[in-house]
Amino acid sequence: MPSEPWWKSAVVYQIYPRSFADSDGDGIGDLGGVRAHLDHLQALGIDVLWLSPIYPSPQDDNGYDISDYEDVDPVFGTLGELDALLADLHARGMRLVMDLVVNHTSDEHPWFVESRASKDSPKRDWYFWREQPNNWTSAFSGSAWELDEATGEHYLHVFSRKQPDLNWENPDVREAVYSMMNRWLDRGVDGFRMDVVNFISKTPGLPDGATGAGWRQLGGEHYVCGPRIHEFLQEMHREVFAGRDALLNVGEMPGVTIEDAKLFTDPARHEVDMVFQFEHVNLDQDGTKWKPFPLDLRDLKRSFGRWQEGLAESGWNSLYWNNHDQPRIVSRWGDDGEHRVRSAKALGTLLHLHRGTPYVYQGEELGMTNMAFGSIGEFRDIEALNHYAEAVAEGEDPAAVLASMQPMNRDNARTPMQWDDSPHAGFTAGEPWIGVNPNHAEINAAAAIADRDSVFHHYRRLIELRHDEPAVALGDFTMLLEDDPHVYAFTRALEGTELLVVVNVSGEPASFAAIPDAEAWAGAELVLTNAEPEPRGLELGPWEARVHRR
Ligand code: NOJ
Questions:
Q1: Nearest 5°: CA angle at 475, between 471 and 480?
Q2: What does the pLDDT look like over 47-97, one tens digit per residue?
Q3: SS (H, E, C) 31-47
Q4: 247 alpha carbon to ligand 1 midpoint, in Å?
Q5: What are φ and ψ of residue 185, in 5° steps?
Q6: CA-to-CA separations, 339 to 165, 296, 332, 342, 377, in angstroms, rounded
Q7: Distance, CA 344 to ligand 1 centroid (Å)?
Q8: DSSP element (H, E) containing 492
Q9: I need a surface site. Which of 19, 366, 441, 498 has the fewest CB within 10 A?
Q10: Whether the predicted pLDDT of 1 surpasses 60
Q11: CB count in 10 Å sphere of residue 88
Q12: What does the pLDDT read at residue 212?
């Protein structure tokens, strides 16, 4: 595929370092832990490691509140260890993508410390200061404005009050960010995952919000893909990425529409390579994440189908079920009981064979599940803690609030990686910073690697298929059986090769007899399945997935 970018046939693995592996016994994962487990990544076959933030941080939002962009937090290690990790990865033919948060900094970043010092600080205008707040709300409950006693003004924070938003209207801010990014690339990193990067341009004057427009917070319409966003990303491209080779720049973009995403990822426009969109992970909720309802598979088909079509000619999709903000997919839309292994494989198959770059979040390749949190004291995430405090203060029943938080809270994704069946799952020799899921006795990497039929080996085969079969990376996509509530089916086609993917997304038997040419397909080469013995015919068992080729 000479003229196609490398990342079209690549698979990215996300590590949330806090929860991956602890090498020094302090109960918190670190870079030493990552380095110790590179064999695991290599065995899986991934191409890129995306590392969630490891910069110095007060850890109010687990590192998404950065107080120094140019160093490593001692809790995770040193710059020297990061260089060593980079060298290890490159030696194994893998790339490193850093998570970068530039919509906001920590309130402990020297830029903000200087900005808040006085009304005439040279950095005052690097952030948003107002005498009177507007009506915007924070993603982590309450107002998006915090009163700063020192000067009697309020500053804007779309996320926690320890995450003040940077003012990208100020060219000095932009220049400082670009030069910092250039230093990371000069150091050898292979790109960035840009946190909420479509929030960096705000409507001048910061008017009150009315709807929230696609993002659940009031005011969102004034910063989700704001007025200068394309200009800023093009400038970033010119100042940082242009003239450098083989990088990956993925923009996390809550509330992004297909029309926006087409513009952001059109290679001719030089903005980002691909975006993370949120439409599919919002299909089981309406406005609030705390009252999810069961997914209607037809909605997922409509959503994915539109995104596949929208970016078919130019632009590119990112494909994900999980990350550090989402609950575990096997608990969410699979069956984490009787059919855990099968359903995890089925969902992996469904996702990975779309057109786009798949992202695997640590533990997803083991079929790790959500955790049962017994009390509010077991939660660690600021989003959950703030929501609980606010709901209880408003008079809601604490037990009911706790129960409502189980399915969707972000700590579900942040329980430690399950390496083996030892007391803390092989994650740490100390006391883990967050509880380990008791099911690690059964669900763990050691057991998965030893078992040829595990979720791990199925993911490995999916990744291998993307590497080896060009139709997976580049083929045209056609959705089938749009109105079927249980069977997800589509074809991929490239230069005479056609793949059929059929997945029964239910615990009941189902059939794909209604697809065009079904009999012939059922007799075609079976490239991959999660069923034993090798299935035949047009019937699918519970959570059965098949990939045929002809
Ligand atoms: C998106 C990140 O993924 C999330 O973890 C974080 O809380 C917010 N951005 C704020 O940085």
A1: 110
A2: 999 999 999 999 999 999 999 999 999 999 999 999 999 999 999 999 999
A3: HHHHHHCHHHHHHHCCC
A4: 22
A5: -70, -40
A6: 44, 19, 13, 5, 31
A7: 25
A8: strand 487-494
A9: 441
A10: no
A11: 14
A12: 66
Find the residues whose C-beta lies inside 6 A of ligand 1. 61, 64, 101, 159, 195-196, 252, 324-325
For residues 429 and 431, give the distance between their C-alpha atoms in angstroms, rounded to a whole number. Answer: 7
Enter the tokens of residue 205: 């004057």
- Among 144, 149, 152, 48, which residue's Cα sits nearest to residue 93? 48
Token pair listed for 113: 């410390």
Cβ count within 10 A of residue 271 = 24
The yes-or-no verdict on residue 298 having pLDDT over 90 is yes
Atom of ligand 1 nearest to the CA of 160: 10
Structure tokens belonging to residue 329:
């997919």
Q: Which residue has the tokens 């533990």?
A: 363
pLDDT on residue 145: 98
Distance CA 369, CA 415 (A): 10
Take residue 188 and report the two structure tokens written for it: 């050898």
Tokens matching residue 304:
């994915």
Report the nearest-CA residue for atom 8 of ligand 1.
Answer: 64
Determine which one of 195, 260, 271, 383 is catalytic.
195
Mean pLDDT of 267-279: 97
Choosing from 19, 61, 197 the residue with most ligand 1 atoms within 8 A of its CB, the one to mutate for a pocket test is: 61
For a ligand 1 pocket test, name from 18, 62, 159 the mutation site with the most ligand atoms within 8 angstroms of its C-beta: 159
Inter-residue contact 386 to 141 (CB < 8 Å): yes
CA atoms within 13 Å, Cβ hemisphere of 479: 21
The closest residue, in CA terms, to atom 11 on ligand 1 is 64
Confidence bin at 536 (pLDDT 50/70/90) = confident
Which ligand 1 atom lies nearest to the CA of residue 103?
11
- For the chain, first and last CA: distance in Å? 21
Quote the DSSP letter at residue 142. S
Residue type at 437 in one-letter notation: N
Quote the CA–CA distance of 393 and 396 in Å, as a whole number.
Answer: 7
CA–CA separation, 413 vs 327, rounded Å? Answer: 6
The best mutation among 50, 64, 278 to test binding of ligand 1, ranked by most ligand atoms within 8 Å of the C-beta, falls on: 64
Longest alpha-carbon distance in the chain = 75
Cβ within 8 Å of residue 286, ≥6 positions away: 293
Q: To which H or E segment does residue 351 belong?
A: helix 340-352
79: part of which helix (H) or strand (E)? helix 79-91
Residue 252 designated active-site: yes
- Among this protein's residues, is 195 annotated catalytic? yes
User: CA–CA distance from 362 to each of 206, 416, 417, 483 (Å)?
Assistant: 38, 9, 7, 33
Nearest CA-CA partner of 277 in 299, 297, 251? 251
> Is the previous residue joined to 533 through a cis bond, with omega within 30 degrees of 0?
yes
What is the Cα 386 distance to its own chain's centre?
22
Q: What is the mean pLDDT of the chain?
A: 97
